[in-house]
Design brief:
Length: 263
C-alpha cells in the first residue's frame, strides 16, 4: 500500500514538473520571439546606412586619389565590408532562431533524418549499435512540419531505438511514400513491446515492465511528447512489435504538395 501511495506522490510531483516546464517553455518562446524581432529590426537599421557607406567609398576608390587618400579609402571599404558580413550573420542567426517557433511548412525530412542519425551515431557506436538509413529514407519528398518538431520526434524515437537495442545490433530507418503521406519505419532489435502495451507507451509516464525491471533510464515522457508534437503538424505514430523480437515505430507525416500539379 505504501508503495502505491509513494508512486502516486511521485506521479503528482512529475506532473507538477511537466506543467511548470510547459509554462516556462511558453514564456521562453515569447521572450525568444521578442529577442528575434529586436535583432531583426536592429540589423535592418544597420543595413541601409552601411550599404550607403560601402557604395560611396567604393565609388571614391575609383577616382583619382593620392596614395594617402587611397589608403584611407581602402581602409573604409575593408572595414565597412567586415561590418556588413557581421550584420548578415546576425540577420541569418535571428532568422534561424525565429524558424524554430514557426508555423508548419514544407521541409526536408530526409535531411533531418541524416542529421539526427549523425548526432546519435557516436553514442550508439560505443555499444556496437549501428544506425542504418536505408536509401528509401535518405531521399524523400518534403513533409509538413517545423524544424523543431520533426527534429524532436526523430530524436526521441531514434534514441529510444538505440537505448533499447542490444549490443552489436542495428537500428534501421526506412520509408514508404504515397500521394498523401511519408511514412518512416524505425526498427530495432530490442526486447519489443507486448501487444497490451502498444497503445499505452504513448501515454504520459507509461513505461513497460521490461523497461522498469531492467532499470533502463527514462521518464516515460518521450513518446507522449512525440505524439503531441505530431498532433501539431497533422502526423501520427504507432508501434508494431510481436513483443519479443524488436520494435518498429511507424511515424506518419503529411506530404507537402508540390505547386506543380503535374507532379
Ligand atoms: P522513456 O524511454 O523515457 O521511458 P518513452 O515515453 O520514450 O519514455 O517510452 C515509454 C516506454 O515505451 C519505455 O519506457 C519503454 O517501456 C517503451 N519503449 C519505447 N521505445 C521502445 C523501444 N524502441 N523498444 C522497446 N520499448 C520501448
Amino acid at each position: 500500500l505504501t508503495d502505491v501511495t509513494e508512486k502516486r506522490r511521485e506521479d503528482r510531483r512529475l506532473r507538477a514538473l511537466v506543467e511548470r516546464e510547459r509554462a516556462l517553455s511558453a514564456q521562453y518562446q515569447e521572450l525568444s520571439r521578442q529577442k528575434d524581432d529586436f535583432v531583426a529590426s536592429i540589423s535592418h537599421e544597420l543595413r541601409t546606412p552601411l550599404a550607403s557607406i560601402v557604395g560611396y567609398a567604393e565609388t571614391l576608390d575609383e577616382t583619382e586619389l593620392d596614395p594617402l587618400q587611397r589608403r584611407f579609402v581602402d581602409t573604409i571599404v575593408r572595414n565597412a565590408g567586415r561590418l556588413q558580413e557581421r550584420v548578415e550573420e546576425l540577420l541569418s542567426a535571428a532568422k534561424r532562431a525565429a524558424d524554430s517557433v514557426d508555423d508548419p511548412h514544407p521541409l526536408s525530412v530526409g535531411r533531418i533524418i541524416g542529421e539526427v542519425a549523425d548526432d546519435l551515431r557516436a553514442v550508439a557506436a560505443s555499444r556496437g549499435v549501428g544506425i542504418v538509413v536505408e536509401p528509401s529514407a535518405s531521399v524523400l519528398p518534403e513533409v509538413i512540419g517545423t524544424e523543431d518538431s520533426v527534429t524532436r520526434v526523430l530524436t526521441n524515437i531514434m534514441s529510444n531505438a538505440v537505448k533499447f537495442s542490444p549490443n552489436e545490433s542495428a537500428v534501421v530507418v526506412s520509408a514508404l511514400v504515397d500521394d498523401e503521406t511519408v511514412e518512416l519505419f524505425v526498427r530495432d532489435a530490442g526486447p519489443g513491446i507486448p501487444l497490451a502495451d502498444q497503445g499505452r507507451v504513448f501515454d504520459r509516464f507509461y513505461r513497460t515492465e521490461d523497461a522498469t525491471a531492467n532499470a533502463t533510464p527514462g521518464t516515460g515522457l518521450g513518446l507522449s511528447i512525440v505524439r503531441t508534437l505530431l498532433d501539431g503538424i497533422g502526423g501520427s505514430v504507432l508501434v508494431q512489435s510481436d513483443g519479443r523480437s524488436g520494435s518498429t515505430f511507424v511515424i506518419r507525416f503529411q506530404r507537402a504538395h508540390d505547386l506543380d500539379p503535374a507532379d
